[in-house]
């Protein structure tokens, strides 16, 4: 069994994990930075990068301790090399390079999106390629056909905001604070999803792309009108997002070719209403449905370690001078 050290630092979570190629999660540690960013209502890149510098090395040491391992026991060091906030990505990648060089281990530069895309295979050993993936996070909203490691065909993307961004902005409009997604979901539970008429951008259009900017503006207008209860706005907003995701996935299923499984990954996949709508969609199309456990949906280092393990098994390692990339489409 190969053991991979995974490192994640592309946004506001610093994380380290030790993952076995047999899918064993030997250790995973995570330090969020919510308190540091809360006063600003969103992630401040410079604060994030400084926080990664402070906590990443102790996190890696703690993960090794948890697993009862030393760096010598590790077969490769995998770190997110992009896309993401470049200062933070550089902190994690440089740390990984230093460890790889010091211990004489190979480096694996992981695309953060590939980490999300392959994470369902860490959670479910029976999930085979190809599968249809809805990747929904704060920065991304894509439908991908995953044919193998490194083989991704993008069927849809967002033409403006990502779904998670729409949740975060709705939370800000409703004064729920940061991070927004879980708070909007919690408030939506007590609201009426039919109370506020909100648009479903691009619904029914031929291309399976997403758009959420217009929905966000409509939420703002509804909130400013003073005519609606916040819980009804939250519930109506969430229902609009669900409708858009399902309609666009229907298109992608029709256009993307056969896939036995529908898979969801990324932070927004933590949303219960979205998960159950996706499960029903998969059942209607006779597809299996895989959603990783919640902790594996939001940013973490286990998915980076696992993507590293998948790449390591194929002999895909990277040179020590590889650069961090703020943008890096799959
Ligand atoms: O994957 P992730 O941790 O970071 C990125 O790579 O973006 O995703 C974070 C996003 C945030 O926009 C957050 O509001 C959203 O996922 N999110 C949720 C929920 N939990 C997290 N959105 C809706 N409902 C949730 N329960
Ligand atoms: Zn992410």
Walk me through the structure.
By secondary structure, the protein is of the alpha/beta class. The chain folds into 2 domains: about 5-115 and about 300-315, ATPase, nucleotide binding domain (Nucleotidyltransferase, domain 5); about 130-290, Nucleotidyltransferase, domain 5. About 45% of the residues lie in helices and about 20% in strands. It has helices spanning about 35, 45-65, 85-105, 110-125, 165-175, 180-190, 215-225, 230-255, 270-285, 295, 300-315, and strands at about 5-10, 15-20, 25-30, 75-80, 105-110, 130-135, 140-150, 150-155, 260-265, 290. The strands form 2 sheets. Strands 3-2-1-4-5 form a 5-stranded mixed sheet, with helices on both faces. The protein has a 5-stranded mixed sheet with strand order 8-7-6-9-10, sandwiched between helices. The two termini are about 30 Å apart. The model has no long low-confidence stretch (mean pLDDT about 95). The structure holds 5'-O-[(R)-(carboxyoxy)(hydroxy)phosphoryl]adenosine and zinc ion. 5'-O-[(R)-(carboxyoxy)(hydroxy)phosphoryl]adenosine binds near residues 11, 164, 185 and 266.
């Amino acid at each position: 069994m190969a053991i991979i050290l995974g490192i994640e630092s592309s946004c506001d979570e610093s994380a380290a994990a030790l993952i076995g190629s047999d899918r064993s999660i030997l250790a995973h540690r995570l330090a969020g930075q919510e308190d540091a960013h809360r006063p600003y209502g969103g992630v401040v890149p410079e604060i994030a990068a400084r926080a990664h510098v402070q906590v990443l090395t102790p996190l890696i040491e703690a993960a090794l301790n948890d697993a009862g391992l030393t760096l010598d026991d590790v077969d490769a060091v995998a770190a997110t090399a992009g896309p993401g906030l470049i200062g933070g990505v550089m902190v994690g990648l440089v740390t990984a390079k230093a460890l790889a060089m010091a211990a004489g281990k190979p480096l694996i530069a992981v695309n953060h999106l590939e980490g999300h895309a392959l994470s369902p295979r860490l959670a479910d050993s029976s999930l085979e390629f190809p599968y249809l993936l809805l990747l929904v996070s704060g920065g991304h909203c894509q439908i991908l056909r995953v044919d193998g490691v490194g083989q991704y065909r993008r069927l849809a993307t967002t033409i403006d905001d990502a779904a998670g961004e729409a949740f975060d902005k709705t939370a800000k409009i409703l004064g729920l604070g940061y991070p927004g997604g879980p708070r909007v979901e919690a408030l939506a539970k007590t609201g009426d999803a039919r109370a506020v008429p909100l648009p479903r951008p691009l619904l029914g259009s031929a291309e399976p792309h997403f758009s959420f900017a217009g929905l966000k503006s409509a939420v703002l207008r509804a909130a400013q009108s003073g005519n609606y209860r916040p819980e009804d706005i939250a519930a109506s907003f969430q229902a609009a997002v669900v409708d858009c995701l399902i309609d666009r996935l229907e298109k992608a299923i029709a256009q993307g070719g056969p896939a036995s499984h529908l898979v969801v990954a990324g932070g927004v996949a933590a949303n219960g209403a979205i998960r159950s709508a996706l499960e029903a969609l998969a059942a209607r199309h006779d597809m299996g449905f895989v959603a990783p456990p919640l902790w594996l949906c939001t940013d973490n280092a286990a998915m980076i370690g696992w993507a590293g393990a998948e790449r390591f098994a194929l002999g895909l390692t990277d040179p020590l001078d590889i650069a961090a990339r703020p943008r890096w489409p799959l």
